């Protein structure tokens, strides 16, 4: 190992700046031509850059496969690397004399110098690009993840001069290019090197960061602050506090992170005040947590700090003043305003104003939110004001937190008082359970401590006092356990006396005590307000009635149906919030009578419930009317009634109930279908059809469409062709008001009826009507069906007028497809010229790149039936159509459509093969070189068609 003096002897290398005058080894005979060229063209940046890049490549080549030297020298361990550094420094410095503001030169120069001092930089791979306006916390995490590390590097003690020279070069670069953020970032990066000299480790780094923030515009500060904050955290102590205070004054989003650092540095008072300030600002809407924390979550973190550092954060009990005393003293200090003179002078600080002179609302100074103020906090006052008054749903956590604070300070009596006050004021069972569990744990811990103290007595007098206190604590604890169910019940009823579910839970608490259960039900029915109850208010009355019906909780007493009826009778007079609740009362009453086999009574109950008043023009949804006045229009009640009549009533009574439902106009489509099905099951077919007719009159489309479908199907099934004229009238009536999108199935059903039982000509007329009425997207299908039916009935010639009209109506794409069929028809009929004319007509709609099937069909047609002239005419038309479609938009559309078609064909072909064939197809190469060349133009194709017409392209 070389001595320190020997290592220092080879350094410095760049101080002063090397030149051929002082170091002749920097130039060799091969560099003379380059130097002369640079002397002739000193203002050519390209020439300088080419020379530098050539020198860099030579340096890289010369440093390969070199043996490692002393690790303290890092990249400068070998003489070659030291010479290369001097040579590159000389060239860069010479170039910068002429181009001092070239960012390209400075960046390359600094990268080179940084490599020879810091070593080879290795950087972790970033998963993605940084967001433009990312939160500071994410930016810090990204910078920590992407932090550079180095392999080797020059020791800070041995290479002090080189380190200092590197810093000097960066300072010079920033003097010429002060607003280049990349230079600042590269400069700041060197301060993270493990071999950084101690002279640059603290003060110089802080001042450099400050200069960067002062120099760069505010829009670029978000590139400096993440590294500054990371460095400040590593520095620790007052530096961290000073830097973070500066930053959060500009951007409070890092305050939460700063509080965690303060806790780690054991500065809980400052952390607590910052968290309290954030919680208050978030509650006022002035702060939004970057971590998505709510105002209560921030207050909870403040409470955690208070519990952990009770002595350091909170005021001593002796220092806490009564709540009204400070206000009274402030009022005494204020002097009354004099009204005797002409000038009234009001004391007070200046009020800030905006540009228009209007005062800006500002909040008074609060020492509880000032992190620099050493005054401690009044914890109890803050919890009551900022916690319990604002977050009533989190009262349990706040009360237990306050009690824990007093326990940590040794104030057990105040902790007990806090627990009792909390249990008497909370409104949720969750909060109560939280407080009660903490209270019980506190009592157990205190009793355990007193018992441990009695186990090792020191004084008889103190032992007696301890035993008395232990007995008192034991009695209080036992009493607390006995009070628990009642305390829970008080919480539930205090929260909401109209909560039906909680009243049911209260009934369940009494278990098998029938007297208490009945008493609880009676009290509940007297207490609740039906207009303010929660859901299912009727359930309380129903359960009370079932209690009497079943003979108590366990059913040991005889059934008391009279009491159950009285409860339900009373329930029918209650003004519930919804009509369905009253309907449930009547339905449950009817079910109770059925369970006890009082069928006639069940019918009478439903008759009472569905009694129709004189004024039937009542709006069911009118909330201003009582539910009793709107009950007769409850579909739920009538549905139950009709089900009951179908089960135990007669056909006539059931029909009467259905008729009343339709008269009241409360029947829906399902009721219509059920009524008709009921009549059909009882062989009242004509009556069922009348029900359908009434239904289609009540409802409009699309509901009427479903009824017509069922009605017409039932009618045809019943009468077939025996009542053809009536069936026709029904179809015409259905189609009269049917919209376009629903009429297609009706037309098809109508035509099928005529085909099976009527006249073929009428069926064709129906198909013709359908092609004129249905939606445009359905017309092609209708024409296809029409043509098929006409061909089967009247022969192929009868389809010509249909084809001709279809070609006038359908869009271009469908017209082309229909023309192919039309041409095939004409060919079958021997009309070759008509078929050729149809092909020529359809060609204008068919792009040869997307409609290859059409042109292939025409080509086959001309080969089989045409002549050389007709074939040439076909080719001429094809070229003209292709030229017509030869635009960029149509070409892209053709490409997309062609690719889609190829993919579809491939998918269909794959679906028709077995599993192994599909696997082999996937494994096959995408391209296979051909072994046989295509025949040259004019060469005979021995495998071709002998009758094929040979036409050369030059002939056109």
From TrEMBL:
GO terms for cellular component: post-mRNA release spliceosomal complex; Prp19 complex; U2-type catalytic step 2 spliceosome. Residues 530-920 form the Pre-mRNA-splicing factor Syf1/CRNKL1-like C-terminal HAT-repeats domain. Pfam families: HAT_Syf1_CNRKL1_C (PF23231), HAT_Syf1_CNRKL1_N (PF23233), HAT_Syf1_M (PF23220). The keyword Amino-acid biosynthesis does not apply. GO terms for biological process: generation of catalytic spliceosome for first transesterification step. It is found in: Nucleus. It comes from the Eukaryota. The keyword Nucleus applies. Residues 315-373, 931-956 are annotated as: Disordered. Residues 326-335 have a biased composition (Basic and acidic residues). InterPro entries: HAT, HAT_Syf1-like_N, HAT_Syf1_central, HAT_Syf1_CNRKL1_C, Syf1-like, TPR-like_helical_dom_sf. Keywords: mRNA processing, mRNA splicing, Nucleus, Repeat, Spliceosome. Residues 162-252 form the Pre-mRNA-splicing factor Syf1-like N-terminal HAT-repeats domain. Residues 373-528 form the Pre-mRNA-splicing factor SYF1 central HAT repeats domain. SMART domains: HAT. Residues 315-325 have a biased composition (Acidic residues). Involved in pre-mRNA splicing and cell cycle progression. Belongs to the crooked-neck family. Associated with the spliceosome. This is Pre-mRNA-splicing factor SYF1. It comes from Rhizoctonia solani.
């Amino acid at each position: 190992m070389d001595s320190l003096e020997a290592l220092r002897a080879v350094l410095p290398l760049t101080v002063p700046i090397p030149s051929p005058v002082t170091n002749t080894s920097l130039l060799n005979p091969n560099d003379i031509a380059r130097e002369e060229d640079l002397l002739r063209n000193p203002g050519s940046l390209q020439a300088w850059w080419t020379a530098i890049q050539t020198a860099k490549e030579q340096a890289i080549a010369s440093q390969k496969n070199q043996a490692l030297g002393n690790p303290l020298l890092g990249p400068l361990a070998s003489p070659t690397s030291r010479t290369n550094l001097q040579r590159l420094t000389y060239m860069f410095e010479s170039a910068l004399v002429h181009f001092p503001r070239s960012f390209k030169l400075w960046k390359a120069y600094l990268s080179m110098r940084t490599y020879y001092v810091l070593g080879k930089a290795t950087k972790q791979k970033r998963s993605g690009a940084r967001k433009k306006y990312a939160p500071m916390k994410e930016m810090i995490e990204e910078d920590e993840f992407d932090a550079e590390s180095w392999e080797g590097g020059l020791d800070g003690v041995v290479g002090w001069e080189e380190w200092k020279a590197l810093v000097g070069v960066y300072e010079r670069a920033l003097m010429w290019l002060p607003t280049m953020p990349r230079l600042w970032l590269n400069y700041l990066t060197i301060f993270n090197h493990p071999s950084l000299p101690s002279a640059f480790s603290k003060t110089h780094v802080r001042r450099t960061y400050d200069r960067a923030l002062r120099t760069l515009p505010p829009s670029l500060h978000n590139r400096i602050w993440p590294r500054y904050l990371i460095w400040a955290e590593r520095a620790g102590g007052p530096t961290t506090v000073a830097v973070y205070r500066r930053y959060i004054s500009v951007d409070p989003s890092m305050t939460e992170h700063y509080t965690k650092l303060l806790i780690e540095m054991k500065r809980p008072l400052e952390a607590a005040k910052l968290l309290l300030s954030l919680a208050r600002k978030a509650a006022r809407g002035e702060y939004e947590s970057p971590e998505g924390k709510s105002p209560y979550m921030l207050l909870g973190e403040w409470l955690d700090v208070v519990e952990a550092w009770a002595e350091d954060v909170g005021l001593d009990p002796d220092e806490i003043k009564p709540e009204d005393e400070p206000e009274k003293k402030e009022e005494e200090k204020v002097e009354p305003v004099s009204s005797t003179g002409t000038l009234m002078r009001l004391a007070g600080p200046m009020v800030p104003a905006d540009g228009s002179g209007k005062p800006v609302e500002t909040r008074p100074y609060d020492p509880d939110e000032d992190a620099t103020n050493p005054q401690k906090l009044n914890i109890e006052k803050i919890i009551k004001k900022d916690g319990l008054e604002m977050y009533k749903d989190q009262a349990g956590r706040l009360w237990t937190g306050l009690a824990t604070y007093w326990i940590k300070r040794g104030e057990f009596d105040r902790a007990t008082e806090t627990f009792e006050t909390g249990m008497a004021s909370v409104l949720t069972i969750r909060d109560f359970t939280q407080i009660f569990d903490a209270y019980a744990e506190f009592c157990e811990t205190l009793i355990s401590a007193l018992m441990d103290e009695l186990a090792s007595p020191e004084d008889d007098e103190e032992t007696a006092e301890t035993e008395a206190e232990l007995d008192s604590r034991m009695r209080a604890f036992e009493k607390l356990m006995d009070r628990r169910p009642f305390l829970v019940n008080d919480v539930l009823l205090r929260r909401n006396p109209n909560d039906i579910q909680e009243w049911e839970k209260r009934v369940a608490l009494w278990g098998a005590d029938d007297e208490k259960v009945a008493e609880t039900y009676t009290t509940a029915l007297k207490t609740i307000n039906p207009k303010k109850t929660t859901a299912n208010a009727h359930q309380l009355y129903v359960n009370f009635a079932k209690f009497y019906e079943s003979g108590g909780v366990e059913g040991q007493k005889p059934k008391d149906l009279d009491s159950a009826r009285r409860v339900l009778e009373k329930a029918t007079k209650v003004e519930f919030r919804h009509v369905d609740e009253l309907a449930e009362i009547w339905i449950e009453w009817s079910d109770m009578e059925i369970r006890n086999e009082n069928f006639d009574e069940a019918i009478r109950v439903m008759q009472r419930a569905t009694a129709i008043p004189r004024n039937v023009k009542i709006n069911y949804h009118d909330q201003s009317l009582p539910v009793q006045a709107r009950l007769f229009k409850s579909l739920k009640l009538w549905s139950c009634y009709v089900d009951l009549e179908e089960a135990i009533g007669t056909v006539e009574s059931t029909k009467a109930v259905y008729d009343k439902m339709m008269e009241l106009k409360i029947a829906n489509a399902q009721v219509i279908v059920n009524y008709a099905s009921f009549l059909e099951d009882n062989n009242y077919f004509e009556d069922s059809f009348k029900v359908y007719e009434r239904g289609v009159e009540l409802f409009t489309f699309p509901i009427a469409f479903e009824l017509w479908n069922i009605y017409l199907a039932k009618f045809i099934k019943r009468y077939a062709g025996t009542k053809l004229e009536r069936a026709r009238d029904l179809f015409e009536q259905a189609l009269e008001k049917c919209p376009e999108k629903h009429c297609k199935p009706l037309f098809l059903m109508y035509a099928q009826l005529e085909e099976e039982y009527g006249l073929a000509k009428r069926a064709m007329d129906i198909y013709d009507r359908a092609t004129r009425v249905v939606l445009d997207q359905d017309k092609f299908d209708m024409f296809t069906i029409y043509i098929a039916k006409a061909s089967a009935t009247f022969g192929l010639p009868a389809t010509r007028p249909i084809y001709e009209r279809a070609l006038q109506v359908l869009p271009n794409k469908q017209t082309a497809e229909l023309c192919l069929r039309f041409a095939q028809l004409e060919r079958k009929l021997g009309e070759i010229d008509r078929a050729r004319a149809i092909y020529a007509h359809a060609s204008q709609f068919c792009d040869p790149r997307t409609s290859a099937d059409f042109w292939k069909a025409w080509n086959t047609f001309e080969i089989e039936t045409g002549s050389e002239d007709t074939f040439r005419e076909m080719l001429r038309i094809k070229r003209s159509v292709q030229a017509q479609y030869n635009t960029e938009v149509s070409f892209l559309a053709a490409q997309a459509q062609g690719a889609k078609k190829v993919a579809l064909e491939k998918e269909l072909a794959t679906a028709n093969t077995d599993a192994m064939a599909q696997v082999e197809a996937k494994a096959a190469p995408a391209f296979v070189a051909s072994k046989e060349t295509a025949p040259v133009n004019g060469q005979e194709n021995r495998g071709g068609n002998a009758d094929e017409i040979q036409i050369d392209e030059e002939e056109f």
